[in-house]
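Predicting structure from sequence has reshaped protein science. With that in mind, we have picked out one protein's residues alongside their backbone shape tokens:
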Amino acid sequence: MIFGRPGSGKSTFAFELHKKLNLPLYHVDKYFFVSNWAPRDFQEFLTIQQSIVDKPAWIIDGNSTKSLEMRYAKADLVLYFNYPRYICLWRIFKRVWDKNTEIEDRADGCKERLPLGLIPYLWNFQNRVDAQLNLFKTKYPNTHFIEIRKDNDLQSFKVNLNREKDE
């Protein structure tokens, strides 16, 4: 499971991991939204998400903090992309003009955009999830949790992953 600030690189890394490990990849935004960024009925979204986490293996990328526990509880590994705000902000602007078209992380009819509410959401993301994370770490001690705060952290994770895969 991969979650974190918008613009932190979650979808890009999830896609990379999907190609490397050949695990099914699910982007939360594809199921949370319907055409034109309209939110899907929340109960329907939860039903879809439950069917995904009930599968034997998966990579799920995205936030939906109201349903974060559903994914956390079933995850073997949680990667929290907590890059500095200014890096995420830059990447959000960059993504609007330079989207990787291989990554299909949007619902049909949802074009890349920069909604004004995304910036405060990004800015306050850590405050929004800190209490949840502390609770989940206690409640699910067997779920391996890694916080990625900078590119060096991600590179170290990739090196360790390669090492484990080769063994």
